[in-house]
Each structure stands twice: as structure tokens, then as C-alpha cells.
Amino acid sequence: MHISLVAEKIFYIGNFAVTNSLLASVITSIILISIAFVVSRAFKKTPGRLQSIVEMVVDVLDGLSQSVGGQYTRTFLPLVITLFVYILLSNWLGLLPGFGSIGIYEIEEGHKVFVPLLRGATADLNTTLALALISVFSVQFYGLSKNKLKYLTRFFNFENPIMFFTGILELISEFSKIISFSFRLFGNVFAGEVLISVITALIPVIVPLPFFGLEIFVGLIQALVFAMLTLVFINIGTQVHGSETSVESVHGLAGEEVEHGN
Amino acid sequence: MGTEEIRMLAMAIVMGLGTVGPALGIGMLASKALEAVGRNPEAASKIQTNMILAVAFTEAIAIYALVVALIIKFV
After folding, report:
1. CATH number of this structure's domain B3-74
2. Are B45 and A67 an interchain contact pair (Cβ–Cβ within 8 Å)?
3. Which residue from B66, B61, B75 is spatially nearest to B21, judged by alpha carbons?
4. Can you tell me the ipTM of this complex?
């Protein structure tokens, strides 16, 4: 059984090492871009099969974002949907047969090492770190663009000592967001791959099946969690007004189902 | 015991102890959320969304333990 924490390098372009997870993420991007291209070319009033699926995904996430609330939700919804779809597809692609099992043997330090050609894109810390950086920076970007310099009072507030201290905590929490975003996704996906390879090594037939089901579910939940957290954080960032900001948005999140009811 | 044995032991202990807290937390969260759905079934979708968010935050702690365990094992 071979488990590697870091993605393996396959070949080099100049000094730039192309890893197997980078290859998988490029494949993910190509699939998503081509679906978007095909659907947007032939956009019909009565949707076909592919268009229905795309519309369904957008509709569900739009409904979710409306339930979170906030007046600017529609402006950053495309980013959230993109994150969701990208993470979902790379999580699920990593479960396909061929990922981690098709590869080449390379001589490293005297003995043969198996190098898989493909590895789930989100099972590499570099990918998830990049996604986390995109997410956290877009929180700052939307916060600054909607509230201008008033956004900075969230971090640097000299009105009273308590606000000053809260500002410091907010600043630290922005950095811890990067860490928790990236490690949550990486940890879940990587742990899933380790789980599956361990189970497959123990009993190769039938028994791994339910674990694949679990991993499909985990992939969906993690994509949803990443997108939802991005949505909520951007929402909180765009609504800076005084000290009750985060408390209010949490209330907005928790309360009032009654008026939209069923 | 050599270094390698201690590393293996440390990894197991990190995962074992590190998941106790999040396990309790997620259990509490789910039980409260189910209770809330039982009281007010109309709010089920809203409660579900918030529950998933809160579970993600709680679970992050277990993930930190996992990361530490991975670092002990592989780095």
C-alpha cells in the first residue's frame, strides 16, 4: 500500500514541476469550461438535459443564498457557484477508477517507486490553499468595494478598548480562516482516499462499495460547506455597520423562516 | 522504544484524543437540531443549512488533529 501526503511530480516544463494533482485540476477545469461553453452557446427557452442540470445547480444555490440573505448576494453568487462546482467535480473525479491506480514506475534513490498519473485535485494541499486564498481575499475585496474604507473599522477601531481588542481578534480570525478552509477540505478528501485505499487493501471486493458512497456524500458536503462558508463570510464582510455586525448576520441566518415558510 | 515507534504511538494518540471533543460537539449539535426540527418542522431546511455550517466548524477541530497526525507520520 502506498500513501503519499504530497502530490507526486510527473514531468517538468522548464523549472516548473507538473504534479499529478495539477493535471487532474486542469482536467476538471477543461470539463467545467466545456460544459459552460456548450450550454451558453445553445441557450434555449425550453431547456434540454444538460441545460436543466446546470439550471438546477444554479437554482438550488441561488435559493440557498437567498435564505442566507444580504442585499448583495447576487453580485458574488457566481464566485460561490464556481467554487462549489469546481470543488464538487474535483472531489468526485478523484473517486473515479484510474485516479491513483494508473501510473508509471520511476527509479528513486535506488528502488522503484510507483507514481500515479492522476490524483484528486483537492487531495493536494496546494489546490485547497489556493481555493482558500481566493475565498478569503474575495471577502476582503467585496468588503472593501461595498463599504469603502469603513470596512477597515472592522479591524482597526479606536472608539473604545473593547472594540480595539475585537478588531485584533477579527484580524487574527481572517488568517485562521485561510488555514481552516484549506485544511478542512484537504483533510476530508485526503482522509477519504486513505480510508478507501486501506479498505481496498484489506478486502478488495464489495466491501469498499459503501465507503465509496460515503465519499461521494462527503465530497458533496465539503463542496457545499466551502461554498456556504464563503457566502456567509462575504455576507458578513459586506455588512459592516457598528459593533453588532457579526451578531446580526448570525441572527439573520438563524431566524425568520416563518415569512417564507412552505 | 525507538523514534519510529514513538511516532506511531503519538499519531494514534493525537487522532484518538483529538476526535473526542468534535465527536461530542457534533453529537450535541445534531441532537439539538433534530429537536428543533421536531418542534418546528417548517423550519427544517433553514435549520439543516445552519447545522451543516456549525458541523463544519466543529469538524475543523478534528481536521486539525488529523493534520497534526499526518505531519507526525509523514514529515
Report:
1. 1.20.20.10
2. yes
3. B61
4. 0.70
